[in-house]
Amino acid sequence: MDYYQREMECASREAMLDLQTKRLKDAVRGVYENVAYYRGLMDEKGVKPDDIKSLEDLPRLPFLSKDDLRAAYPYGLLAVPLEQTVRIQSTSGTTGRRVVAFYTQHDIDTWEECCARAIVAAGGSRKDVVHVCYGYGLFTGGPGLNGGSHKVGSLTLPMSSGNTERQIQLMCDLSSTILCCTPSYAAFLAESIVDSGARERIKLKAGIFGAEFWSEEMRRDIEAKLGIRAYDIYGLTEISGPGVSFECSEQTGMHINEDHFFPEIIDPDSGEPLPEGSKGELVFTCLSKEAFPLLRYRTRDICVLSRKQCSCGRTLVKMSRVMGRSDDMLIIRGVNVFPSQIEAVLLKCGYPANYQIIVDRVKHSDTIEVQVEMTPEIFSDTVKDISRKEGELVGALRSMLGISPKVTLVAPRSIARSEGKAVRVIDRRKI
Ligand code: DLL
Fold it and tell me: What is the per-residue pLDDT across 44-86, written as a single tens digit (0 to 9) for each?
C-alpha cells in the first residue's frame, strides 16, 4: 500500500489530536492578531485566543460563511501582507463580488501535497501519465491536480477542458493512465471513447473525479465503460481547492486531510455541533493556512463523518459522498449557480420575478433552462421580437453566471403559483 505522506495519513489518533490542537491554537491567535474582520467577529462573541485551549473549545468561535467572504472582498480576510501571497483562485460562476482565495507559496505546496495524496491513493506514482481535464485558470480543479501530479513526479498533461477529440487522441498517443475531470465529463468522454472505437487503445487505469455530485451508479457506469477504478475527490476554493478529501482503494467515502482541515458536522438550522455519525452540514477550520485561514467555515455541503477503521490503513476521518446542500446552490457543468443571481438579472432586465429554473442531465451533461413569464406588453410582441428578447436575456445571464442557459419566455401567469414557497428550481437530474 502506498501513501504520499504516510506519517500524516496513518497517524495515531493521539498524535493527530496533539497536532490539531497545537495548530488550532496558533491559527486562532494568528487570525485574531492579523485580521481585523476576525478580531471584530471574535470580540462580538466575547472570545479571545486564550479561550481556545483544545478542539472542544472550537464551538466558541464564530462561524464564517460565503456572506462574510463577500463582505470582506477582496482583501478583508487576508492574514499576511500582500507581498507574501503568490496566487489567487476563485469560485466559478459568480461575477461582481466573487469569492477569491489567496495563497502563499507554502499554502500552494500544502494544497498540492493534498492532491498528491489523492493521486497516490488512486494508485498513482512516478510511472503514471496524469491527464488533467479539469478547467485551468481561476477554477481550482486544473491547477490543484496539476500541482499534485508534479509533486508525485508523474508525467502531467495539462489538457484543461473541452475538445473531446483532442483529449482522446492525446490519451491514446501518450498512454494516459490517470484521468482527472468532473464525473459528468468522464461519463461523456467514456461514451465518446466507446463510440469512436478507441476503447482498445486507451491505457487508463484510474480516474479522480469531483467538483460536483455523482452517484454510485454513475461510478459503476464509468468504471465499466473505461475499464478503470473511479475515485471521488472533494474540495472547495475557500478552503484550498480539490484535495480537501479524497477516496482510497476502499471507495467508501473520502479521507479528509484533517492535519490541515479540521471538520465538524453541525445542524444547518441551529448551528449546533452534532454527534459523530450524524448527517449534517460540514464545517471546516483551516489549521495550517497562512494567507487565507478560514475558521469554522460553513460549506453548506451535507454529509456524514465516520472514524471506522479503513482497509487502506489511513486513519484520516472519512466523509461520505456529498448528499446535498443546505442552501440552494446548483452546480451546473461544474459552475456554481445561485437562483438568486438569475432572479437579479431578470429583475434588472425588467421582467417580473415569475420564473422557473429547469435543470436536467442529457447525455451526461447538465442543461439549464430558465422559463420566464412575459409581461402582457412583451406577450403582444411578434415572434421575432420575443426571440430577440430571449437572446438578450441569455447574454445577460451568461455574463452573470459564466454559462449560457436556454431562456424561454412563456405566457403571462403560465408558471404554476405555489401556495407556500415558490418552486423556483426543478432539478430532474437523476444522480
Ligand atoms: O469544485 C474544487 C474541486 C475541483 C473539487 C476539482 C474536486 C475536484 P468550487 O468551485 O469552489 O471548488 O466548488 C465547491 O463543489 O462546496 C461542493 O458543493 C461541490 N463539490 C466539490 N467536490 C465535490 C464532490 C471545487 N466530490 C463545491 N462531490 C463544494 C460533490 C462536490 N460535490
Answer: 999 999 999 999 999 999 999 999 998 999 999 999 999 999 9
Measured by CA distance, the residue closest to atom 18 of ligand 1 is 301
Residues 303 and 366 in one domain: no
Query: Which residue's alpha carbon is nearest to atom 9 within ligand 1?
Result: 236
pLDDT digits (tens, 9 = 90+) for 297-316: 999 999 999 999 999 999 99
**CATH number, domain at 419?**
3.30.300.30
**What does pTM read for this prediction?**
0.90
DSSP character string of 22-34: HHHHHHHHHHHHH
- Rounded to whole angstroms, the Cα distance separating 181 from 260 reads 24
Pocket test for ligand 1, best of 140, 160, 180, 335 (most atoms within 8 A of CB): 140
Pairing verdict, β 206-210 and 85-90:
unpaired
**Residue 299, domain extent:** 82-327
> Residue 312 and residue 2: Cα distance in Å, rounded?
9
User: Mean pLDDT across the chain, nearest whole number?
Assistant: 93
Residue 26 burial by CB count (10 A; 0-12/13-18/19+): exposed, middle or buried?
middle
Query: Cα of 211 to ligand 1 centre, how many Å?
Result: 3
Ligand 1 first shell, C-beta below 6 A: 91-92, 134, 140-141, 210-213, 232-237, 241-242, 299, 301, 322, 331, 336
Q: Scan for cell 487522441, then name that residue.
A: 169
Residues 206 and 258 both lie in one domain: yes
User: What length does the chain have?
Assistant: 431
Nearest CA owner, ligand 1 atom 29: 236
Band of the pLDDT at 295, cuts 50, 70, 90? very high
Rounded to whole angstroms, the Cα distance separating 296 from 364 reads 34
Residue type, 220: R
Domain boundary among 275, 307, 327: 327
- 77 in a structural domain: no
Decide which of 300, 327, 354 is a domain's last residue. 327
Residue 70 forms part of a structural domain? no
Q: 237 CA to middle of ligand 1, Å?
A: 8
Cell of 11: 497517524
Determine the distance separating the centroid of ligand 1 and the alpha carbon of 244, expressed in angstroms.
10
